[in-house]
Amino acid sequence: MATEESVLDQEFDYLIVGGGMAGSAAAVALRQADADATIGMLSAEAHPPYDRPPLSKALWADGKEDDIWRPLSQAAVTLQLERSAVDLHRATHVVTDSAGDRWKYRRKLLLATGGRPRTLPFGERFIYYRTLDDYRRLRAAATPGARVAVIGGGFIGSEIAAGLANAGCSVTMLFPEEGVCARAFPASLSAFVTDYYRDRGVDARPGVTVQDASGDNLLQLSDGSSLQADVVVAGLGIVPNTELARKAGLAVNNGIGVDDHLKTSDPDIYAAGDVAAFPSTVLGSHIRVEHEDAALSTGTHAGRCMAGEDAPYKQLPFFYSDLFDLGYEAVGVLDARLQTVPQWATPNEEGVIYYLEDNRVRGVLLWNTWDQIDAARALIAESGPFDADSVRGRLPA
What is the pLDDT of residues 259-281, one digit of tens each? Predict the structure, then answer.
């Protein structure tokens, strides 16, 4: 891996825009498929590619940053940090970066531009949690007894709140839903998790949002109360970075549209990771998945396809989470608005929840139940028809 302070008018066989997990996985796959090719990578971050899940999981338990770095050295990549791609000229195969330097790709380009955190219209001092630098800033502030307000009760907010509470902080969660992860979990499970967080010392406040904030992190809340915090961290999801693709005239709809080979509407340009909207045969639609498995698997397949292999992407990505001593894996669509069918070995502690729509299984939540992702994928792929009686028991709880 080479890192240069200034790269002027560089030419590569393959160019990757984005230095996250998807981009690094693509680079490794490209190198494995094409030993002699030159590969360039532009990254807006200040750090080489790293694993993102530990930022809200393992690092709060062990703090070992040495374990998070992606194996980019295997790919012999020319890496330029702290540069964003601002223009893409498809006809000449040239990308211009934020410093005005030009990067030419002779063969293929990968857009792995990821996403940026959703923000609130106030609170510039808030930490909008996304990057390693965000983790370091929050970790430095997370001293025992520190008053931390966590805005958001979904996937990231729930993990951050657990990590902060385990670090000895005084944590308050603020979110508009009726319970923790209420958009994904059935109402009864969300209520259980919300009470579980309170039992662990977290002040969970469903239905309460921030209306205003002063410079010293005095928050004015929607229920008329106020909250003084030493630090405020927000986990509100991301907005996919599609501006470069849209400006270049590529097909964009809730992400950069790709086919089953991760190819965009331009045959020389591919997309992977959080930004890619790929076809899911089993779900019958294009989907965009913002999780580790999707980043690594789409990146790997994109790299192989860019190198000329016939490697269609047919995987339905899974995701996982750790919430104090609770944990889960999930695959497919987890939407609490669907029909949910619980199958408990122990209520709210161990079991399987099936998500049904139009007599088919659209998603599976494996709650403290492990090693069943492939079986869950196979179940989602079945045509059915399924109802509550016929689906319950299909997977062991």
Answer: 999 999 999 999 999 999 999 99
Which class in CATH covers the domain with range 119-234?
A: alpha beta
Q: What is the pTM of this model?
A: 0.95
CATH classification (class only), 2-116+238-306: alpha beta
Determine the Cα–Cα distance for residues 268 and 109; give it in Å rounded to an integer.
Answer: 6
Helix (H, G, I), strand (E, B) or coil at 194: helix
What residues does each domain of the chain span? 2-116+238-306, 119-234, 325-391
Residue 7 has pLDDT above 80, yes or no: no
Within a 10 A sphere around the Cβ of 257, how many other Cβ atoms? Answer: 21
Q: Tens digit of pLDDT for each residue in 293-308?
A: 999 999 999 999 999 9
Q: How far is CA 137 from CA 55, 231, 307, 333, 338, in A?
A: 11, 10, 39, 33, 38
- Closest to 193 in 3D by CA, of 332, 319, 318, 324: 324
What would the DSSP string read from start to end of 353-394?
A: EEEEETTEEEEEEEES--S-HHHHHHHHHS-----HHHHTTS
Instruction: Say which amino acid occupies 61.
Output: A
d(CA 217, CA 229): 5
